[in-house]
Design a protein that fits this description.
5 strands, alpha+beta, 5 helices
């Protein structure tokens, strides 16, 4: 309902993007991506769970909204990080360098160009913040000992 309300209020199509994140033994991040519009009556959170195959009751997998962006075609994309990837056997794309996209000036926060790798970098950085600040996130991610070290500054450069 939130997605459809936002669409009605703004006149823009809202898409939900999920980034299923995984980390390798050398602290490199990889992702799988799925994107779709929420179905009628479906919240963005529920759409993210549907796209990633995670249930609301899953205590082992984090599903968290990490960002939104406006696309030139008029879409508003709500990005969710799903960590760890619930289907790690499926092919994923490695991000060799985590680089955040930035605006040019303090009052122009939107960069001219945002690559998907920049969105992944932002999601990883957001997870690092949450790991330190949110006990629910810390509890879920602590079940996966490979994730914490990869979210430390050396593992997840900003």
């Amino acid at each position: 309902m939130i997605g459809s309300k936002l669409s009605a209020m703004t006149g823009h199509v809202v898409s939900v993007e999920t980034l299923m994140l995984r980390v390798s033994t050398d602290n490199r991040w990889s992702y799988r991506r799925a994107i779709a519009q929420p179905v009628r009556g479906e919240s963005p959170d529920a759409a993210a769970r549907r796209l990633s195959g995670v249930t609301a009751a899953d205590p082992h997998t984090l599903v968290h909204s990490t960002s939104w962006r406006y696309e030139r075609d008029g879409r508003i994309v709500l990005t969710y990080a799903v960590c760890p990837d619930p289907s790690p056997w499926l092919p994923a794309i490695e991000v060799p360098v985590l680089e955040i996209a930035r605006g040019e000036a303090p009052a122009t926060p939107s960069p001219d160009r945002v690559a998907l790798a920049n969105v992944v970098a932002h999601a990883v950085r957001h997870l690092a913040f949450l790991l330190a600040e949110d006990p629910v996130v810390a509890r879920a991610l602590s079940r996966h000992p490979e994730i914490g070290p990869a979210l430390e500054p050396a593992g997840a450069p900003a």
